[in-house]
Amino acid sequence: ASSPSHTYTRLSVKMPTVEQLYDAYEALTAAKEKANEHEDQYKLILSAVNGSSMEKRLASQHIARFFKHFPDLAENAVNAMFDLCEDTDVSIRCAAIKELPAFCHNNAELLPRIADVLAQLLQSHDSTELHIVNSGLVALINMDIKATLSAIFEQILNGEDIIREGCTKFLWAKMKTFNVEDMKLDVEEMIIEKSKEILVDVTDTEFVTFTSILQSMKSMQTLKGRQQLMDIIIDQARLDTEFKSTEQECVGRILQCSKQALPLLSKNVSATRLVTFLCKSVLPHLSEVTPPNTDTDIKLELLKILAELVVYTADVTDPESLPNLYKCLVEYMPLPPDDGPAVEEPAVEEPAVTPVDDGAEATPAPVTPAPTPAPALPAKADLQFSYVECLMFTFHEVAKKTPEFLTDEEQLPRLKDFRLRLQYFARDLQLYIKQLRSALQGKTGSDLKTDENKMKIEALKLTSNINTLIKDLFHNPPSYKSTITLSWKPVQRTAPPATNTTVRRSDEAGGPAAKKARDIYQPPKDKYSQRLERFGPFVDTNERRGGGGGRGRGRGGGNKRYNRF
């Protein structure tokens, strides 16, 4: 901590006894508005801060009470209370801290100084003391919100890490209780300016906190404000630097920035820069990404956030992005073995994708209820359905704006290869869908609420999504008309359509109305993979602010627990 910017002279008064302190208190109380005529008694009380525990407790109660009558002793009085605030006895500290806001009632110029000291005291580990500090800061906020928050922000920017952490927690907790609609413009501008300064050098947790604070500001709800915040997030993501797939701090930063960007996106606030970076720099090294712990599938987290971002992109013009995306997708879609059975006519009862003439609509095969349980997936199948859903959805969204990627004359070998992969993948996919439907057939109510059946319902939603996309992409030429709700996202309930389907089709000229598709389960949210992998959010256990070495400044500290002006 930095050294105090001033000192004060301790009063040369003989150490008072408890009886003398009571006498001084009675004399000042009896004098009422003429208490200023009893300066010696007030000096006696001030000198008690160097006494025993009883004298200190009495001093902490009386100094603030008679403070207004002795402006010439204001500096001594304030610093005497600060001495008590750093006493080794927690009860004395609590008694002194509780009285600090009283100094500001008729002395507004002292509020920033008192707020600064209280902000530093947020480092306390004693719950009672911390509660009193919080109450004191709330009292100051009610007197002058701008000055109090300025002091807190100053400690976040320049204080020791333990103080910074305490101030950040306090600020985040209190910001959620403020009515931003009633907040004055100058206060909001100060919060935005200080938050931007802090975001230059933050930990993962602080990044989420301060971007959330900015998002809550009224002025940041406008298009200009959201774009401004999006630019801050992009800067924090450092898209102009190399993606280091084996560094958890780098992977975590990209993931956190992408998640914070999602609420800001709209047709006017684009995610193109993030999507381009993920496709160009992250996907080629996806296999190298290592999770921070065994419960986290960080690769799937990255693919999921990419799929959520891609719907808010304009054209992805970077020449490497779509090829990288396609290459990553087909890595999870194997070609049929040379000695395996033909796959052009998969013998399954689910809608099978069959080749069609140019311009014709792909039609599902007739559906027949399975009379017996479907067979298990072939042992050779090791299909990452969760990965494929994310990648295929992203490819579907990007390729619709660049259809020539598959349809140009020189791309015919690529299209042929892709169709083989789609058809072979669809075969095992439809076997799995059949197995899931058979397992869920006849189950209702409480039966469907078991963990096992919930996972099967989620799996059915996921695999049905992939099946819908495959049917679109198998068209000749590939079609991009179908829409799906990603399996981990909640289903948006709308007015019941004429038919319950996840595919919206446009009527062909001169053709019949949109065909009915089979009803499928619509689970509320979450994900499923064939391996039933479970994981939590990415947490960098060694989180640091910014890149490289972080904020660690290695400051030393003296015996004082806070700084004085």
How would you describe this structure to a colleague?
The protein has 20 helices and no strands. With 565 residues, the protein is mainly alpha-helical. Helix 7 packs across helix 8 (145-158). The longest helix is centred in the C-terminal third of the chain and has 29 residues, at 412-440. It is elongated, with a radius of gyration of 33 Å.
In short:
It is built from 20 helices and no strands. The protein has 565 residues and is an all-alpha fold.
Instruction: Report the biggest beta sheet as strand number plus sense, adding barrel if it closes.
Output: none
Extract low-pLDDT stretches: 1-12, 342-381, 497-544, 547-561
- What is the general shape? elongated
Rg, please? 33 Å
Number of helices: 20
Features:
565 residues, mainly alpha, 0% strand
Q: Topology of this protein?
A:
Blueprint: H1 18-31, H2 39-47, H3 53-65, H4 74-85, H5 90-99, H6 111-120, H7 127-143, H8 145-158, H9 161-175, H10 185-198, H11 204-216, H12 223-237, H13 248-261, H14 272-282, H15 298-309, H16 321-330, H17 385-399, H18 404-407, H19 412-440, H20 451-473
